[in-house]
Amino acid sequence: MAAPVLLHHPASLEHDTGMHPESAARIAAIHRELDARGGLGWERRESERASREAILAVHPSRHLLAIEELAAAGGGQIDMDTVVSEGSYEAALRAAGGAVGVVDLLLSGEAPAAATAQRPPGHHCEAGRPMGFCLFNNVAIGAQHALDAHGLERVMIVDWDVHHGNGTNDIFHASHEVLFVSLHQWPLYPGTGPAEDVGEGRGLGHTVNLPMMPGSGDAHWVSMVEHVVRPLGRIYRPELILISAGYDAHRDDPLADCRVSDEGYAAMAASLRALGADVEAPVGVVLEGGYDVDALGRAFADTLATLGAAEPPPAPEIDEHPAVSQALRRVARSWPQLAGI
């Protein structure tokens, strides 16, 4: 059986953000943890650059050109959070290319599971605006590539980063071809993602925001994935599941107030692997945030261990959190099949 594949590239280390929580140390921590665990059976490959065609399917040409020109000029500050250095354009091309590569590996059947561990992250980047540490929206580029190059009709993105993925939310806001589900602390940067935001037009109901309280931990996050996200996925029946995998809801993370453990991330990954089995869809991982580097390394490795194991781990047996019934009632307004669950 083919090995699962982790895509990476040294260019991630050349995106120089200075004294910044989103630093090259994040990638080094992931590789250090994987090395300590003997690689977990994952084959590591270098990613290709994303093609202009793949990027321009999500971002306008002026967006691409602005990043390229700023990097060529030696870099600069886009906003108070978002930095470009001389090496950032190449890093961003490879990070977006990692998401595209994950999609190609999974949909070709070359790998049973695939992930990309690259930076800068992407889910805050809007179609025409870099922000929130993000230059291109990697997971959106990967999802759109699945639709355009592979002819898929239904892609599901599950974003468990503690910060709402406003860019991904907005890029697919009117699309029924992508079901975007976000679990995120509320309130918190960037201030988007209220439960009432459910998409628009043909995409009505295909944006599902699940705000989480500050201080919430495994009991809330894992229960929401198992008892809301997984049943919703069984109804939607995606042909591909992409995890926008941030690890900043971790209890050790300095930038937020949630309390998810290493085991909680493994349990959420197990739920989504079980969903993939339910609907016969492959599952891929695109790295987002996570700013305690040791916690990031451990939790990312636990995710890979869960998704790449030869025998699937059991889906978590966890009681429904009190917030689940409220979330199900709300989501059932767009997905009435959930009402009987």
Give the key terms.
single chain, 341 residues, alpha/beta, Arginase, Chain A, 8-stranded parallel sheet, two-stranded antiparallel sheet, 10 strands
Report on the architecture of this protein.
- The chain has 341 residues and is an alpha/beta fold.
- The chain has helices at 25-36, 52-56, 61-72, 88-108, 138-150, 166-171, 218-236, 262-279, 293-308, 322-331; strands at residues 5-8, 43-46, 75-77, 83-85, 114-116, 155-159, 178-185, 207-212, 240-245, 283-287.
- The protein has an eight-stranded parallel sheet with strand order 2-1-5-10-9-6-7-8, sandwiched between helices. Strands 3-4 form a two-stranded antiparallel sheet.
Helicity range = 25-40%
Total number of strands:
10
Question: What is the spatial order of strands in the main beta sheet?
Answer: 2-1-5-10-9-6-7-8
CA-CA gap between termini: 36 Å
Largest sheet report: 8 strands, parallel
Low-confidence stretches: none
What would the CATH topology be?
A: Arginase, Chain A
The secondary-structure class comes to alpha/beta
**Radius of gyration, CA atoms, in whole angstroms:** 18 Å
Number of helices in the DSSP assignment:
10
What's the CATH H-level homologous superfamily?
Histone deacetylase domain
Examine the secondary-structure arrangement and name the CATH architecture: 3-Layer(aba) Sandwich
Shape: globular
**CATH top-level class:** Alpha Beta
Q: Approximately how much beta-strand content do the residues carry? A: 5-15%
What order do the helices and strands follow? EHEHHEEHEHEHEEHEHEHH
Determine the mean pLDDT: 97
> How many domains comprise the coordinates?
1
